[in-house]
Amino acid sequence: MRKLFWTCAALLLPLATMPVVGIAQIGSAQISITPNNSQKVIPGAPDRFTGSVRVQSLFDAKEPARSSGGQVTFQSGARSAWHTHPLGQILIVTDGVGWVQQWGGPVQVIRKGDVVWIPAGVKHWHGATPTATMTHLAFQEQLDGKVVDWLEKVTDEQYRLTK
Question: Which residue would you say has higher pLDDT here, 34 or 142?
Fold first, then answer.
């Protein structure tokens, strides 16, 4: 009997010293699901975009997190205005072919599956090519409640010169 006791104790001792995980979360933060059909799709604001653009907010930053994300679809010839992000931005191209350009740099072609990292404070624009549509997911973090600083629009001349 004594041998059985010590065998059981030896087996149960590691369980007694293991940290309890998950129990403290009961009653606090909960997983939430936002159905696709409840996510608002709006046209791109004319002072921030040229051409036909649809913007779907996927999620907003919820404290303590700072990240937000959206899906943006650009029709042929559509593009964003020049802008910067205080903590940078990640784009994941999910469909089509587009362009991205950093101020003073060459245009770069982006295609379905490409991941684009735009560093903090880098002035840039992105959008579709003149002959193709492009959709991307955009992820950025807020700093002091701000995720983007919108600047001047990309002119037709600047856009045409990026070919």
Answer: 142
Amino acid occupying residue 58: L
Say if CB 81 and CB 46 are below 8 A apart. Answer: no
Q: How far apart are CA 126 and CA 138, in angstroms?
A: 11
**Do you find a cis peptide bond into 19, omega within 30 degrees of 0?**
no
Give the chain's radius of gyration (CA, Å): 24
pLDDT in tens, 79-114: 999 999 999 999 999 999 999 999 999 999 999 999
Residue 33, pLDDT > 90, answer: no
CA angle 14, 20, 22 (to 5 degrees): 145
| CA 81 – CA 45 distance, rounded (Å) | 10
Pairing status of strand 124-128 against strand 49-50: unpaired
Amino acid sitting at position 132: A
78 contacts 121 by C-beta, under 8 angstroms: no
